[in-house]
Amino acid sequence: MTAARIRALALAALIAALLAVPYALPAFGATFWVNIVAEVLIWSLLAASVNLLLGYVGLLSFGQALYFGFGMYGVALSINAWNVGFWPALAIGIVAASAMALITGVLAVRLTWHYFAIITVVFSLIFYFAAMSMKWLTGGDDGVSFAPPPVFKLGDTTLSLADATVQYYVILAVVAASFALTALLVNSPLGLSFKAIRENDRRAALIGINVYRTRLTAFVIAGALAGTSGALFAFFGRYASASYMFYHVSGEAVVWAIVGGAGSLLGPLIGTGALILFRELISNIWEHYLIAVGAITILVVMFAPRGLAGAWNDLLQAAGARRSDTPTSAKAMTVGEES
Amino acid sequence: VNEFVFALAVNGLVWGLIIALIALGLSIIFGLLDIINVAHGDFFMLGTVGGLAVAVGTGSFWLALVIVPLIGLLLGAVIERLVIRPTLRQASLTIVTTFGLSMIIQELVRATYGAQPRRMSAPIEGTVPLFGIDYDVYRLCAAAFAALCLAGFFLFLNRTKLGTWIRAVRHDPETATALGVPVTKVSAFTFALGTAMALLGGVIAAPITTVEFRTGVDVLPFCFMAVIIGGLGNLQGTVAAAIMLAVLEGLVTSVTEPTFARIASLAFMSAVLLLRPHGLFAGATR
Questions:
Q1: Residues of B in contact with A294 (CB under 8 A)
Q2: How many CA atoms, within 13 angstroms, populate the side-chain half-sphere of residue A245?
């Protein structure tokens, strides 16, 4: 089997497994885990927004929690104020986050590397402190709660988030659609110019790419991904809280993206899944499991800087090179995945 | 009301001098190794926790003031060797490794010391009348001591051989290597020194702040503001910016909520970062 075949099979297996979750897990008496998987899916979008910037454009953002927060509050406040339905609320959350990313991005993407990381964390801190003090609007640390509207209503049939299975499939659908759109994006001409800028922004400018506008585009799309994640999380928890805008949330997303593998499409999902499952399994036995998470983070940067997905790709390539007659073909197949 | 404003300004000055010491540690690490150390606030926190532990254990605050920074020097050297040096090739990812380090430190302290915030009694009790208010003697001593340490640091940097080496490596590592400066060792020492300064600041601040595993989380953004506004790598600028910011926040706090003071200084910092990325005092020294 070639590397591409293995990869296609693995992807099909992953999709099948995710689709089966609400039926398979309760069959083993693990109903609780359905919600954990849903949570992994939601957070993986926040990691994906970090990954789009770091892995594809070469900008390390430490402030994606800001757009996550705008997604959350977009949903919670619009439902409370105007009583809008599920899909309009989701859209408002995503638009609010993207608009915020556009406003802050206009300034932030003028900077790169350390300066970019610092300005993104500073912007997120400004709005974190503002949200914490504007209790009349945001509820501060306690947050605001809301009653989620039905997802779908036709005659007598109503699909509601109160049904855990419906909730899971709604989340899976939105997350899968986001990942599919990201896949289309990174393989489009725009995605290629992202990678050109990541490799060398000066050369990219010389071949006619507008570096500033391309970076800004990526920043807004990343904001939309983070906003989608926040909006889904608001629906999931039925509330929005300013505490999710703190830089530790951004930092966690960076850790998930890097452990999973920055620069590979499904890396964020793998990293988020691995670390959240780790948390759920270990935190019952060992209260101070964060020590292990910190150690894992450092070890991954040290020994596998391209993360779990990078290690998996290397493994596939090695296997492919051993089995196929033309070793280069396996390599060519993976271009879409890495670099 | 005037006394109140005055007290807040003096508080700002005291706090600014301590922050300057910590931010200076962050600044030399950045200037030399080109890494952003997100765990620096937690080094400060280790200083407060360690200061309290040693002071309670030995019964002497002054002993803690000597021992804890020395532990910091050792700790910094170990961390540099184990965590920083192996990841230096991935310069952009050091933010991530130090974030991992920060998680480890905070959680280790929570596991051993507990999550309960504590207060430490000042080693010097009492107040002095100061322009119409009764002011804590210890706060004034802390400010004086921090100022002394700052002066000592600049003397060390400008007057000793090791200090000269540090400046040489900051300026041009390749030429420094060619001239026989042991660059790797100097880098390691610089990281250790920066760490020790954060712990020293922690011991000094321990009696005037809450001592818990999260203390560093609040201090880190403030240190970053000082470093950015002063100009990344500009050491005198860092000191000036730390004092200026702390006094300004103290003054703004006297008319409005502390949160707004923090938002104002963060907004000021973004303006500096965008308009004068090398800091307010760029061009003075670098």
A1: 100-104, 107
A2: 30
Mean pLDDT of chain A: 87
CB contact under 8 A, B232 and A114: yes
Question: Are the Cβ atoms of A301 and B93 closer than 8 angstroms?
Answer: yes
Burial zone of A150 (CB within 10 Å; 0-12 exposed, 13-18 middle, 19+ buried): middle
| Nearest Cα residue in chain A from B103 | A294
Q: Region of B118 please: left (phi>0), alpha (psi -120 to 50) or beta.
A: beta
CB contacts, 8 Å: A248 with chain B: 217
pLDDT digits (tens, 9 = 90+) for A317-327: 887 766 555 44
- Distance between CA atoms of B255 and A105, rounded to whole angstroms? 32
* Buried residues in A283-301 as b, exposed as e (16+ CB within 10 A): eeeeeebbbbbbebbbebb
Q: Which two tokens stand for residue B76?
A: 């910094």
CA angle A250, A255, A256 (to 5 degrees): 95
Give residue B9's pLDDT. 83
Cβ neighbourhood burial of A199 (10 Å; 0-12, 13-18, 19+): exposed
Q: What is the 3-state secondary structure (H, E, C) of B139-184?
A: HHHHHHHHHHHHHHHHHHHHHCHHHHHHHHHHHCHHHHHHCCCCHH
Q: pTM for this one?
A: 0.87
**Contact (CB, 8 A) for A54 and A271:** no
Q: What is the ipTM of this complex?
A: 0.85
SS3 of residue B73 by DSSP: helix
Which DSSP symbol is given to A273? Answer: H
| Cβ-defined contact of B103 to A130 (cutoff 8 Å) | no
pLDDT for res A336: 41
| Residues of A (58-117) whose Cβ lies below 8 Å from B | 60, 62, 107, 110-111, 113-115, 117
**pLDDT beneath 50, residues of chain B:** 284-286
Cα(A50)–Cα(A253) distance, rounded to whole angstroms?
A: 7
C-alpha distance from A302 to closest chain B C-alpha (Å): 6
In sequence order, what E strands does A11-132 have? Answer: none
Q: In this structure, is the dihedral angle defined by the CA atoms of residues A169, A170, A171 and A174, taken in order, positive or negative?
A: positive
Which residue among A123, A130, A302 places its CB closest to the CB of B270?
A123
Give residues 174 to 213 of B whose Cβ lies within 8 Å of A: none
Across the interface, whether the CB atoms of B100 and A301 are under 8 A apart is answered yes
The phi, psi pair for A87, rounded to 5°, reads -70, -40
Whether the predicted pLDDT of A245 surpasses 70:
yes
